[in-house]
Design brief:
It contains twelve helices and twelve strands. It is an alpha/beta fold. The structure holds S-adenosylmethionine (SAM) and iron/sulfur cluster (2 copies). One iron/sulfur cluster binds next to loops.
């Protein structure tokens, strides 16, 4: 009978991020800057039933939160069906979230809410249409804003994630804060990470946590007060008292927090990774497709998690010199290193 597992650093397996597709309809400069990519063969992509079996296998090990991501998860047809399946599997109260670029959300937000989604995070890096077009290489800001509005109308609790890049959108901190406050959404600023996919990454393009705090203080004319209780969450949260607004910073480059990381990532093809930076994972597709039971899968995953010692971002922070994790030639050979493949 499996019991909750801990890895070699004592970290539990509480969270699973499921990439439901490696496809995306945007080409964000910090994630997919290249002209062409190696895609997962469709037959290799896990069915909803297979994803459900992986989730079932992880639950006795301690799993309590699932986040659907990608690529762009809303490119996966019938996603509300997967949400309904996982809601039944997880029970009525477990956290079941979605990270999306929002561009396909308008038509499906209400359905996702009915299917049992707990909340949505929309990635939104700019409020300026031309800037969006340049950054994401698609003219899709109106669609993303319509998606955000639909999520709000559907009553889904909403977060906004913004990757800040120097010289690109670092000057929009104030506008984005106002936008999030008016919407009733929590905004999180994310440091630009040197993950697989970010082939143009340079340290000088990162807007560090302290600079973000200074920008916010200047704009809001008050000092953000740190909120306690970060737990395993990647974001540090702050309160702007006068504005009655909470916002977050994910300082994965300058102040990584691997020692609390309780997340595993499942690629669309069924490989589990213990870290955003991990080069090797546990391929669950062969056992899934050769009749392994949920219990059998659980035993495999438990053994793998117990051996986990990943601290990718902390190790990267200790490097004397830092550049992109891997050049595009390597990513073409090992596409599972890509952020859009393993799920951010
Ligand atoms: N397509 C969806 C989206 O953009 O929300 C989900 C997948 S995307 C890979 C998940 C998150 O990863 C997004 O919030 C995106 O901003 C973030 N991301 C991608 N590349 C990143 C990088 N180099 N540094 C920091 N965050 C990154
Ligand atoms: Fe942008 Fe998300 Fe697509 Fe990456 S996966 S290019 S972050 S929309
Ligand atoms: Fe977790 Fe790896 Fe990110 Fe550290 S770098 S927080 S171990 S996923």
């Amino acid at each position: 009978m499996p019991v909750p597992v801990r890895d070699r650093l004592g970290r539990p397996l509480h969270t699973l991020r499921v990439s439901v597709t490696d496809r995306c309809n945007l080409r964000c400069a910090y994630c997919m800057p290249e002209d062409d990519y190696v895609w997962s063969p469709r037959k290799a992509v896990l069915t909803f039933e297979e994803v459900d079996r992986v989730v079932a296998a992880l639950m006795p090990l301690g799993l309590r939160r699932v986040r659907l991501t990608g690529g762009e998860p809303l490119l996966r047809r019938d996603l509300p069906e997967l949400v309904a399946t996982l809601r039944r599997r997880l029970g009525p109260t477990a956290d079941l979230a979605l990270t999306t670029n929002g561009t396909r959300l308008a038509g499906v937000a209400a359905e996702l809410a009915v299917a049992g989604l707990s909340r949505i995070t929309v990635s939104l890096d700019t409020l300026r249409r031309e800037r969006f077009r340049a950054l994401a290489r698609r003219d899709a800001l109106p669609a993303a804003l319509a998606g955000i509005e639909a999520a709000r109308s559907a009553g889904l609790p909403l977060k906004l994630d913004t990757v800040l890049l120097y010289g690109v959108n670092h000057d929009e901190v104030g506008e984005l804060l106002d936008f999030a406050r008016d919407l009733g959404a929590e905004l999180r600023f994310i440091e630009y990470m040197d993950v697989g996919g970010a082939t143009r990454w340079r340290l000088e393009d990162v807007v560090p946590r302290d600079r973000i705090l200074a920008e916010v203080s200047g704009y809001a004319a008050e000092t953000p007060r740190p909120l306690p209780g970060r737990g395993a969450r990647p974001a540090e949260r702050f309160l702007l008292e006068r504005r009655e607004q909470v916002f977050g910073i994910v300082p994965s480059v300058t102040a990584p927090f691997c020692r609390a990381c309780d997340r595993a990532r499942l690629t669309a093809e069924g490989t589990l990774f213990g870290c955003l930076y991990a080069r090797r994972g546990l391929d669950l597709r062969p056992p899934l497709r050769s009749g392994a039971t949920v219990e059998g899968l659980g035993v495999l995953v438990a053994g793998w998690w117990r051996g986990r010692s990943d601290r990718g971002a902390e190790e990267r922070a200790a490097l004397p010199q830092r550049g992109a994790l891997a050049p595009s030639e390597v990513l073409r050979l090992e596409p599972w290193l890509e952020m859009h493949h393993r799920g951010g």
